[in-house]
Amino acid sequence: MKDWVAIVDDDITNLKTAGMILSKNSIGVSAFRSAELLFEHIRGGERPELILMDILMPGCDGFEALGRLRKLEQELELEEIPIIFLTANDDESVEIKGLALGAMDFIRKPFVPEVLVIRVRHILELTRLQSNLTTLVEEKTKENNELSLQVVMAMANAIDAKDTYTNGHSRRVAEYSREIAARHGYSRRKQKELYMMGILHDVGKIGVPDEVINKKDKLTDEEFALMKTHPAVGGKILEDIKAMPSLAVGARWHHERFSGGGYPDGISKEEIPEAARIIAVADAYDAMSSYRSYRDKLPQEVVRSEIEKGKGSQFDPVFADIMLQMIDEDTEYQMSEHRS
Question: N or C: more exposed end of the chain, with fewer CB within 10 A?
């Protein structure tokens, strides 16, 4: 089925330009000179997969239109349509406001054709994945009121498969996280929940190109910035799974730093959910004790030293100490990736 997006912009030139670029790339387009015309279209029973919305428009601007759209969707009992804002404004406050209101992304004008197509396809892929995952989870929930571990593992395997050099990363992070939680006194139910969160902590990498994930050389600033989007993307994918809303916690915040300065939100200490602080230690440990495209796994003593150095800065010292205890008990370095 052909992808279909709606473009809302009072400038006919922008409508024609964006429409021509997307149409040439096999993406169907409906163009509207105002938000009101788009709303009439939706009331008539048509629902685009994605909306590209200009911010500065006479009458109803993009921010107001987004709020009105969400009310209309509730009225008509429709799923939320993702929105990308179109803007020529470089003011960071505008972007912050748009994201806070629920926009998925921003695209700058004048359009760069390649950027326009990539970002539109990226959001379409992510929302389709989220919709499919939500539907699948709801079906499984009707059967047994819990997520199917087989489904979660299949997703984890699909994510890990993007990295041709790392095998079983998500599973190991989940196992280490569960063990830390057990030693910290979590109930069996909480341990299982944390295991699920660990399995899917990297789900946002589905939106990162394989060539960036598998690059052997140092990433460029642009590539690193793209890699850093995966926690927020993962959180967005998982946050609407009603059967287990906590899944999004590990995905979104496992790259925050205990002392602050991490990403995507730059929060610190107890602002970071406890589950994410556990996964952060487990994830860092596995990254160091696994093979990578650019190096072999690190010696156990080096890994231990890095965890020790990260106490109180990168890691919550409570969970770092538990990880250090686990390392000290692992005299044969079995808690690592093994290859024949």
Answer: C
Number of neighbouring beta carbons within 10 Å of residue 298? 18
Which residue among 140, 162, 205, 242 is the active-site one?
205
Q: Answer whether 0.90 is exceeded by the pTM.
A: no
- Highest CATH level, class, for 3-125: alpha beta
From the list 111, 83, 104, 124, the residue with the least C-alpha distance to 19 is: 111
Helix (H) or strand (E) holding 116: helix 113-144
Ranges of each domain in the chain: 3-125, 146-329
Where does 146-329 sit in CATH, by number? 1.10.3210.10
> Is 205 known to be catalytic?
yes
At 164, the amino acid letter reads T
Asked whether 70 and 102 are in contact (CB, 8 A), the reply is: yes
